[in-house]
Design brief:
binds 2,5-anhydro-1,6-di-O-phosphono-D-mannitol, binds magnesium ion, alpha+beta
């Protein structure tokens, strides 16, 4: 037992990536190095969050409004800059696309040799930051295709099947990093005494069905009737329980571990809903599929959606196979 515990303590993230690919190919080395940089970003953000209440100027708004029309938090900017700094020194990533930046960000010193693009949401659920509740970071890695000569990163406007790796970091009581490189889903917990992410759950599988439904019911009268009918169904049947934390990563993490469904439908004012495809829904869909779950817009697999712009949004229904299928059956009026 002691030996097993020691082995596990030595399974750091970068070692795990290499083990997964079972080769020391250039791609394996690159992905391992990229995941290592992401873990550094996660540690920096985690450290800042842990002490945010004590650090002058860490909390609150900047006074700016971002491209999405949302008020920007100081922590959003800090976390966005952390990813940029971390990847400036990587040599591997030439472009970054984030929720906080209207345009794709190029790192000239890494271009054109760095053939990877990082798509990310630096702090997701930032309304939770000021009240010391869980937030997350979401990331996705794609290989650059073509030479992007016009600097418009049009090759990013492809489906989620182009993702090489994806994951999230949950800043909760522990900081947990969950990732997949297409070989199952694995979770690592930050051990602050070591400053390392150590393997804590390997080959996570989501249950086929689960009790949780996670949705902002305050939008009830903003939804289509089909979504209201699904919620009425849940209310009338035993065995369901509602959980909604206002931060996607935490809500999804619960569903990944315990089963159920997360819903962010379109509303009358926003038919595409709120969540962005490239750095929110698609990476989470990639993870869910790897864990045996699913993600849908209600009419199409999230992984099949081709966005028309970097910040495109889609409705999102994600979680256990059976629960996602049930929501779809209401949307497609099969019940
Ligand atoms: P953000 O990236 O601007 O923080 O917005 C995304 C967040 C998700 O984490 C969360 O699931 C959702 O917005 C909550 O939205 P609402 O307050 O409309 O329920
Ligand atoms: Mg977000």
């Amino acid at each position: 037992v002691a030996e097993h515990a020691l082995d596990r303590d030595c399974t750091t993230l970068s070692r795990h990536v290499l083990q997964q690919l079972q080769s020391y190919s250039p791609e394996a080395q690159d992905l391992s190095a990229i995941m290592n940089r992401i873990s550094l970003a996660a540690k920096l953000i985690s450290r800042r969050l842990t002490r945010a209440g004590l650090v002058e100027g860490a909390l609150g708004f900047t006074g700016e409004v971002n491209v999405q029309g949302e008020s920007v938090k100081k922590m959003d900017i800090y976390a966005n800059d952390v990813f940029i700094s971390v990847f400036k020194q990587s040599g591997l990533v030439c472009r970054l696309a984030s929720e906080e930046m209207e345009e794709t960000y190029y790192i000239p010193e890494n271009c054109p040799l760095g053939r990877y693009t990082l798509l990310y949401d630096p702090i997701d659920g930032s309304s939770n930051v000021d009240i010391n509740l869980n937030v997350g970071s979401i990331f996705s890695i794609r290989q650059q295709q073509g030479n992007d000569v016009d600097g418009e990163a049009k090759d990013l406007l492809q489906s989620g099947h182009q993702q090489l790796a994806a994951g999230y970091v949950l800043y909760g009581p522990s900081t947990v990093l969950v990732y997949s490189i297409g070989r199952g889903v694995h979770a690592f917990t930050l051990d602050p005494s070591l400053g390392e992410f150590i393997l804590s759950h390997e080959k996570i599988r989501i249950p086929e069905h689960g009790p949780i439904y996670s949705v902002n019911e305050g939008n009830f009268w903003q939804w289509e009737e089909s979504i209201r009918n699904y919620i009425r169904y849940v209310h009338r049947h035993e065995g369901y329980t509602a959980r909604y934390g206002g931060a996607l990563v935490g809500d999804i993490h619960r569903i990944l571990m315990q089963g159920g469904v997360f819903l962010y439908p379109g509303t009358v004012k926003k038919p595409e809903g709120k969540l962005r495809l490239l750095y929110e829904s698609a990476p989470l869909a990639f993870l869910m599929a790897q864990a045996g779950g699913r993600a849908s817009t209600g009419k199409q697999e999230i992984l099949d959606v081709v966005p028309d712009k970097i910040h495109a949004r889609t409705p999102l229904f994600i979680g256990s196979q059976e629960d996602v299928a049930l929501v779809e059956s209401f949307i497609q009026e099969r019940v």
